[in-house]
Amino acid sequence: IAGITQAPTSQILAAGRRMTLRCTQDMRHNAMYWYRQDLGLGLRLIHYSNTAGTTGKGEVPDGYSVSRANTDDFPLTLASAVPSQTSVYFCASSALAGGEIGGYTFGSGTRLTVV
Amino acid sequence: AQSVTQPDIHITVSEGASLELRCNYSYGATPYLFWYVQSPGQGLQLLLKYFSGDTLVQGIKGFEAEFKRSQSSFNLRKPSVHWSDAAEYFCAVALSSGGSYIPTFGRGTSLIVHP
What we know:
A: seven-stranded mixed sheet, four-stranded antiparallel sheet, B: mainly beta, six-stranded mixed sheet
């Protein structure tokens, strides 16, 4: 089934530890995004990538890094986790062709708790 | 900076009643406009989108939305709500910038459906 796979589904992480959230899409979409969702704040953009080999910072990038080595994968890394990074993380992708986008497809999310 | 406002944090309706969820944006140009729905513990699902053309857009699950340029609004409507429509609804906007279309989401409206 075409879509986005995120792993793990949930994780409890000790503060100070390093963690990589995985995101893989099989739709050959150009652009990919990482959001965090917190109660009352909606979805806030962490990082994005318009195409393989390029990345950009979103609204809340501090404490996070990303890479885009190929079209399909867009991992998000927390170098040293802090409790304020407790959140639900969503990966998304979109196709960009002819100057138009075809909407955004979301993964099922990763629930991360930093203790 | 682009922004999108969903004025209602919660909306409560009776099953069978009509529904309107409000969304306003602040941009000089007409952005791409989307409505997404999120059921508890799930990712986001696209309901409908507007790029250009007819300002009344039909989506899935019986939803529709109307783009009103003069009011900078893109309100979501449904003539008769079902109990299964209870969920969180997000409006999103995306504006072309240097070849990218990074969506900005509203904070969401929680729909509660009474039997």
